[in-house]
Fold these 3 entries.
Entry 1:
Amino acid sequence: MKRQLPFHSNAVWPPAWLMVTFLFAYGLVMGCLWLISVRLPNAGDISNAGEIVNIRMTIIGGAAALYAAFRLFRFHPACNHAYANWLRLSPWTPRKPLPLGPVHFVWQDAAVIGVLSAIAFWHAHVDPLLPVEIFALAYFGIFTLLLLYMRRWWTSLALGFLWPALTLPQARGTAGVIIAVAIIVVIGHGHWQSLKAFPWPFLKGAAHQTPLLQRNIQIDLGGNSLTRAQAELGWPFFALSPKTELPSVSQRNSVCLGALFGWWSFCFTESATPGPLPELIVFFAFIAGMFRFAIYGNKVSPPFNVWWRIASGRILVPGFDIIFLTPLATVLVAIVGGMIIKRSGSWYPEVEAGVIAVMWYLLFGGGPTLRKWMLTGQFRLRPPARINANKQQLREV
């Protein structure tokens, strides 16, 4: 029995439409240059002008990026739910090759990119490594997004730290190569782990994995558009109906996300050197605090208004006012951090990263959690606006 080599697949050759598009675009440029040379013989050789070289470089780089996107969107099961659902019903295992074609590199990829590099070097007069770099950047960048889409959280977190590190001034030469190799290794490990976790729970038709009772009583809170079942339920029954899941962020995830956003801030400051930006950080804290309050205060109202608080002497209502604490703490951290940033001198990138990390940690992990707030908060349910109300909400009683 003849066994196919793991690095060979005739299915990965570029499709006809991609080759025709590239030939048409590249041929159009060359045809225009030929017409100019015929109509204006005294114009000289303009094929090596900077603008023309940039156009050819864009066409070659775009072809490499499109081929990288084709390699993933055509063969990765996460990009084709029908293919993934068929694969779920088949006897396929991660130790077997994917039926439609491999996602990993094969020698045909080197042949395609090699042709583009040869055109770039011998005819377009641009850097022959350009197609290789763009193909690798597009391929591994899209693969990172796919791993995030497939809920490979720890792999995505590691890649979230590695990708911005390439922009640091210290990531030149050997350090950049080490970071690039680390990205490739982490993506390969995450891809193998995602195949081992197949079938993924987000696949269409995988609803059998959810318990029957949970499917019957669960009403999704995500999104503003009501489903048919929610519209038929009406207000206030929809608001009072049981919710089996409410979105929340654990303390561990809050620490990881805060550190991640702080690292992004540090990499941006080191690479772009915009200077200290304490005012921008304070402005962002105000906006982020208001956004968090809007999430918690959506469709609910205080137990009584401001005038009744003054009249009753209960200025503070701890059961409701607790949702103000995290936004206020975020703004306070931004103000104090801004003062420290102005006095940090050359250490301002590290200080800014630390302030931003603490702010994001408070926004994600500050109490109360949304689940606790919806179950134990002291608030009144606010009726929906008439423009968004359904027929059952508007009919006379």
Entry 2:
Amino acid sequence: MKWYGKIGFITQEETSPGIWEDVSTEKNYYGDIHKLSQKWQNGVDLNEDINISNELDIVADPYILENLINIRYVVYMNVKWKVTNLTIDHPRLTLLLGGVYNGQDTT
């Protein structure tokens, strides 16, 4: 299945001497979804958490190769999902998605 969407990168920038803040950047990419699966997980919350184990395969560009360590989430079906694993098979990258991303946001 084809995919087009945003990948979120989080970097840290020094805003004043000794003060670092997270900065979020989103870039658009094309890719293929190779594996679709989901599971509900009992947690401490009233409602069950959902985790997906989707594999997203994209063609790497210079930006993503320079910022591999900063990849945090992928927007899929209008939800930000955590990137839990990354496999490099140059020139392609495979991203394994996990639970809902609740960290730094661009908005």
Entry 3:
Amino acid sequence: MGVRNLYKYMEKHENIIFNSLNSTEEKDWTYLAQYHKAQIEFMQHERLIHLMVTLAFAMFCITSYIITFFMTTLPLLLLDVVLTVMLIFYIIHYYRLENRVQKWYGLYNKICEKML
């Protein structure tokens, strides 16, 4: 799943949950809670994978910086720049993913309140 598709998927799911929470219709809150919890679990897995990739890129960056410190060449400097830019994008993506999942925890709590 591409990054844009992931964000669209998450936004679509949030809209379903928000519409259900704000609806005056009678809902099967137990089913909605189970459905939402399954979606949270999917995103937790996605988040874990992206954390591992982000940490790997951070290690590549640090290794590249150390090698460049001792052997400064243009190709190594270019590698440092490329890895740094990629790491920045991975960190931004992970940050957005993490915040969205944290938001979903709050939505899950609201669904559970409706079940009481």
